[in-house]
Amino acid sequence: MTRLRLTPLALLLTTALSACTEDAGNPSGTNALKAEVPQRLTVSVAPQRADCQGLIPMKCLVVDGQFFYEGIEGFTHEAGTTYELEIERSLRAAPGEYIADAGYYRYRLIRVISARP
């Protein structure tokens, strides 16, 4: 009888204690608060901006077929031109910090691969 009462209690305590570890909920086993290494990406930018809704109605770049609410540092879009760009994506703030009304990442132009009217 005592064994039947202790088994659920032991299971509950084991589960509760494992949830308090540093990597709880992180399937990769790495610390989620470590700085992310900047990534280089190749993207296509549509020739026209599109109406989109951020905090206010605005015109967004269309990158790889999706609205792109953030700007790309060092890049100026000219209407009517389709671009293929190499960009760098990095964290906008230090891990664990939050910037109100800003995206999680910042984007910077590395190079324009092509620009076609």
TrEMBL record:
Domain DUF4377: from-to ranges: 45-114
Keywords, A to Z?
Signal
Check the UniProt entry and state the signal peptide residues, or none: 1-19
Alphabetized Pfam families for the sequence:
DUF4377
Protein name as annotated: DUF4377 domain-containing protein
Provenance organism: Halocynthiibacter styelae
